[in-house]
Specification:
single chain; 225 residues; alpha/beta; Rossmann fold; 10 strands
């Protein structure tokens, strides 16, 4: 069997929050996600899911434990190599889309590719392909203000995959949408992940959506239970 796309091993993380007593947010979390697998992470508020996603995506570091992407150890990398690994290997989707308002849907997906050294023609072709997969290809030349909330979030999914990462991390990606739109947007996300064959770890409070993924893990009091 190939190495997991994402492999988290015995992660611990604590914060002082300005007090002498440290609060343990993660208490030995281990989790592996295989290429092509979609895993939901269900967690109550304050359980540590955002911290876990930030460590998995190399935005934060654990106090101890290991993060491996495609079998390669990420834990001890310097800032420059961590930034490069995060840019090329990991895509992020958040509850709010954070699209650049002055650029069109397609341009929001092209720009990260240009920053990564991709030729404009190739970047535009890839952006068009991603937008078609999630069903908003006909809206590619519209700015975010002209798009519905669901359309904006689908564009954000595409932007997260602009640089062809192997791991997608999503933190409540449909949390600010109404139930009907949430279902439509989630279906688009599932289709995008299946089409690209990457590994996805998706944090959600929505148990109905979680049940549609390959498997569900629960994070409680800083542990996978």
């Amino acid at each position: 069997m190939s190495d997991p796309a994402l492999d988290l091993s015995d992660l611990h993380k604590g914060y002082n929050h300005g007090t002498p007593k440290e609060v343990q947010v993660l208490r030995g979390v281990s989790l592996a996600v295989q290429p092509g697998e979609i895993v939901s992470m269900v967690a109550p508020s304050g359980a540590g899911k955002s911290t876990l996603l930030h460590i998995a995506g190399l935005l934060d570091t654990a106090d101890s434990g290991h993060v491996r992407l495609g079998g390669e150890e990420m834990t001890a990398l310097g800032d420059r190599r961590r930034t490069a690994a995060r840019r090329n290997r990991v895509g992020f989707v958040y509850q709010f889309h954070h699209l650049l308002p002055e650029f069109t849907a397609a341009e929001n997906i092209v720009l990260p590719q240009l920053a990564n050294g991709v030729a404009r023609a190739e970047a535009e072709k890839h952006a068009t392909s991603l937008l078609e997969i999630v069903g908003v290809g006909h809206r590619s030349d519209h700015r975010p203000s002209a798009l519905s909330g669901g359309e904006q979030q689908r564009v954000a999914f595409c932007r997260a995959l602009a640089n062809r990462p192997r791991v997608l991390l999503a933190d409540e990606p449909t949390g600010n949408l109404d139930p009907e739109t949430s279902d439509t947007v989630f279906a688009a996300l599932m289709n995008l992940v299946r089409e690209t064959g990457l590994a996805a770890l998706i944090a959600t409070h929505n148990l109905d959506l979680a049940a549609r993924m390959d498997r569900t893990v629960r994070l409680k009091d800083g542990r996978i239970v």
